[in-house]
Amino acid sequence: MLKRFKNSNNMFYQLVREVRPRQWIKNAIIFGPLVLGNKLFVFESLFNCFVAFIVFSFAASFVYIVNDVVDIEKDRKHPIKSNRPLASGKLKISTALKAAIVFLTFALVLSLKVNDFLFFLTLAYVLLQLSYSFYLKNFIIIDALIVSLGFIIRVFAGGVAASASISSWLILSVIGLSLLLAFGKRRGERTILSSKQLSLDTRDTLKNYPDTLLDSMISMSAAYAIISYSLFAFQTSPDRPTPELFKDFLPYTLSSPKWMMLTIPLVIYGVARYLYVIYESKNAESPERALLQDKFLLGAIGIWGLMILFFYYVLGTVNI
Questions:
Q1: Res. 282: pLDDT tops 70
Q2: pTM, to two decimals
Q3: Residue 199 burial (CB count, 10 A)
Q4: How far is the C-alpha of 147 from the C-alpha of 149, rounded, in Å?
Q5: Which residues have a Cβ under 8 Å from the Cβ of 191 and sit 6 or more positions away?
Q6: Which of 1.10.10.10, 3.40.1190.20, 3.30.70.1060, 1.10.357.140 would CATH assign to domain 1-166?
Q7: In the chain, at which end, N or C, are there fewer CB atoms within 10 A of the end residue's CB?
Q8: Is the pLDDT of residue 283 over 70?
Q9: Which pLDDT tens digit goes with each residue over 292-303?
């Protein structure tokens, strides 16, 4: 059954590949304001965030299809992108565009079911990504900033859906992380093409991105992300003293500890591990693939998530 579904002639399978559900993992950032706003167990907020996740996933799939149609000739020259359904000819352009219209319509209609603000954020995200696909991706630095802005819109969408406030330091942390992912992806793509002695014509900006510039931007983004997150963790203060359970073995100086600072080493490790993936792994071109296939990076993120849940919902001492 599975083999029949994965048959190269199966239009539905090729369409699933084209919308790239693996990349929907990026939209998980929508749940950040929900968790950090202490609303994980508020059903309405949780449900609205789930809807927002679906909305942005379908909106992103619309953008992926349009972008692949625009770049179809360049993708055919790429060693990896040439295997995409449109570039390889396994999926017709007309079929893909019809599906794209359905995805966009569904996303916009569903966003209105939450509130008008989510609709406007979804529309802003789509318009931003379309401007990127047709024009802005041709300018170095600006292309990475657009990617970062897309993540910021997702965070605000999560805040709107969950009716939760968002820390300014958290926004700055997301900016640093998203820039790291954007510049890292470009560095990884240059590395892959250079190792195969292929032309950089698959993306116009790659020719204008010298390795030294990308290395500098990657280092800057990594440092910026770590510092911003550290300040976020420091600014996150307890709203009540240490629980009685821990008072017997913790010194007095930790009577009101900033528990969130314990997550900083994990963030540093996660960033460092991603830098390793950028320069040494074959998955460097795809951040979501790196996340899903690098067990050390995935483990660090998993432990970080468990620590966040413990501090917020077990100790109950965190207040932004």
A1: no
A2: 0.85
A3: 11
A4: 5
A5: 278, 279, 284
A6: 1.10.357.140
A7: N
A8: no
A9: 778 898 899 999
